[in-house]
Design goal:
This is (2Fe-2S)-binding protein. It comes from Candidatus Litorirhabdus singularis. InterPro entries: 2Fe-2S-bd, 2Fe-2S-bd_dom_sf, 2Fe-2S_ferredoxin-like_sf, 2Fe-2S_ferredoxin-type, 2Fe2S_fd_BS, Beta-grasp_dom_sf, Diverse_Oxidoreductases. Keywords: 2Fe-2S, Iron, Iron-sulfur, Metal-binding, Oxidoreductase. By secondary structure, this protein is of the alpha+beta class. It is about 35% helix and about 15% strand. It has 2 domains: about 5-80, Ubiquitin-like (UB roll) (Roll); about 85-159, DNA polymerase, domain 1 (Orthogonal Bundle), CATH 1.10.150. Helix 2 packs across helix 5. The radius of gyration is 16 Å and the shape is globular. It starts with a strand and ends with a helix.
Amino acid sequence: MAIHVTTSINAEPVEFLCEADDTLVHVLRDTLNLTGTKEGCSTGDCGACTIVLDGRLACSCLVLGVEAEGKSIETIEGVATPGALHAVQQSLLDHAGLQCGICTPGIVVAARALLERNADPSEEEVRYWLAGNLCRCTGYDKIIRAVLAAAQDLREAAS
C-alpha cells in the first residue's frame, strides 16, 4: 500500500507516494527523478547518497522514504544556483578532485554543509567531516585541497 509523504526538497514543497520499505535514495532517484544522488553501497558505508536531512548529513540509502514526512531535504540538485556552480563544485574541477563521479555528489553535499557551519576549517576538520565519503578514483588529497580552496574562495567573496 502506497503512503503519501509531504516534504520539502531543495526548498520546494514536494509530495510523493512510496511503499513503506522504499529507501529515500530510491524515492529521490526513481520517483522524483533527482538522479544526482548516487547509490553506491546501499549500506551507509560509502557516502555517495549523502543528503542533508533537517540540517544533518544522512545517507539516503539508510532512510526510508516515509521518514521524510514533514522534513527538509537538500540534495546535490539544490547546491548550485542556476547558471553557476557552487564554489565547492568549481574547486573540485579546478583541483582535479573528481574522476568517475559516483562519490562526487555526496562529497559536494557534505563539503557545502561543512562550509556553511565553518567558513575556515582546518585540513583535519575537512578530513573528519568527509570521513564518511569514500572515493576509489581520485584520492583524498586533491579533494581536501579543493574543499580548503573553496573555503578560501567563499571567504574572499564574502569580504
